[in-house]
Design goal:
By secondary structure, the chain is mostly helical. 75% of the residues lie in helices and 2% in strands. It is built from twelve helices and two strands, in the order E-H-H-H-H-H-H-H-H-H-H-H-H-E. It has a two-stranded antiparallel sheet. Helix 5 runs parallel beside helix 12 and helix 7 packs across helix 8 (190-227). The chain is globular, with a radius of gyration of 24 Å. Residues 1-12 have low confidence and may be disordered.
């Protein structure tokens, strides 16, 4: 990572140059990722034409469909045509949904965002609080309990957690709905619909947030415990600063740098983790779309989803790098 600790102020030109260089490098990364995804998707077993038209049909009919979809062209030519279209914002036409890929992905983006944002906020808020509670009392009974709980949370797979929550809270107690984003037979009023969606959000959000929450809590705990024994913390206490000021202004703030890195890097992991969660709870988002498109061998949709994930990860990492300067004024980007 091209950043350096310094005590001099950050000129705006240097920051702008750093952003431009990172964007150029990001474009290369996205291109490489798309190339690898294109090759792997077309090398996977299965024929989308057979899945679309069924088996045992007329070979001439298969050939006509393959020609309409451009699948009869050499792989290199298909790749170049795809890159040319993608450069103009055209991600192709869905084989399974018979719609432009941009429209198919756009219709699923909102539900996934609605699922990811509460999960990330829950993970950061609760995980950060648990990490601070454990780190400020390193070696105590509370620290041992929180560390054991977060170890279990980070070790349990999300699909198992989701099924367990369904069995307990949906099937057993009947408190929460099992699947879907809303009740098709529910009230049509705006307030009732919002409450219904929030009711359906509880289980998938908890499932998606558990691993991230445990990871953040463990990282905050270890980072804060390391910061609180450093010399500048002893100096702050010697100056007579209050315990809360020492903890949050001098301790937690300095411990947030590695946590920020993990939060940024986990953005892509949330999208990937949403595949299992959305499949378990039949949530109509990008994760479920990725699962269905994989079964249907819908190449254009798969490539569009992978491109979206690649761009999202690159942007999240760039924003994470730029946030270091806000947390630590010594950081200068060159």
């Amino acid at each position: 990572m091209d950043r350096q600790l310094t005590t001099t102020p950050r000129p705006g030109g240097q920051l702008g140059g750093y952003v431009l260089r990172r964007l150029g490098f990001a474009a290369v990364l996205v291109l490489v990722a798309l190339t690898i995804d294109f090759v792997l998707i077309h090398a996977a077993p299965g024929d989308p034409v057979t899945l679309l038209a069924g088996e045992g049909g007329d070979p001439a009919y298969y050939a006509r469909i393959r020609s309409e979809l451009g699948l009869d062209l050499p792989l290199g030519e298909q790749y170049l045509r795809y890159l040319g279209s993608a450069a103009h914002g055209d991600l192709g036409y869905s084989i399974a949904y018979r719609q432009p890929v941009v429209e198919v992905i756009g219709a699923r983006f909102g539900p996934t965002l609605l699922l990811m944002v509460p999960a990330l906020l829950l993970a950061v808020t609760v995980g950060g609080w648990l990490g601070v509670a454990a780190g400020r009392r390193a070696g105590s009974r509370a620290d041992e309990l929180i560390s054991a709980g977060t170890l279990v949370g980070s070790s349990v797979p999300s699909f198992w957690v989701g099924q367990l929550l369904v069995i307990v809270f949906a099937v057993g107690l009947g408190w929460l709905p099992v699947q879907g984003m809303s009740d098709p037979h529910g009230s049509t009023s705006t307030a009732a619909h919002v409450l219904d969606v929030a009711h359906h959000l509880v289980l998938p959000v908890l499932t998606l947030a558990l691993f991230q929450l445990a990871l953040i809590a463990r990282l905050v705990r270890s980072s804060l415990a390391e910061v609180l024994v450093q010399d500048h913390i002893r100096m702050a206490r010697a100056k007579g600063l209050g315990p809360r000021t020492v903890l949050y202004r001098h301790g937690v703030r300095n411990a947030l740098l590695p946590v920020t890195t993990v939060i940024g890097s986990q953005f892509g992991a949330l999208i990937a983790g949403a595949v299992l969660v959305e499949t378990i709870f039949s949530w109509p988002g990008l994760g479920r779309l990725l699962y269905d498109s994989t079964l249907a061998r819908d190449y254009p949709v798969l490539l569009g989803l992978f491109a979206l994930v690649s761009v999202a990860v690159v942007i999240a990492n760039l924003v994470t790098d730029l946030s270091y300067a806000a947390l630590d004024p010594r950081v200068e980007y060159r």
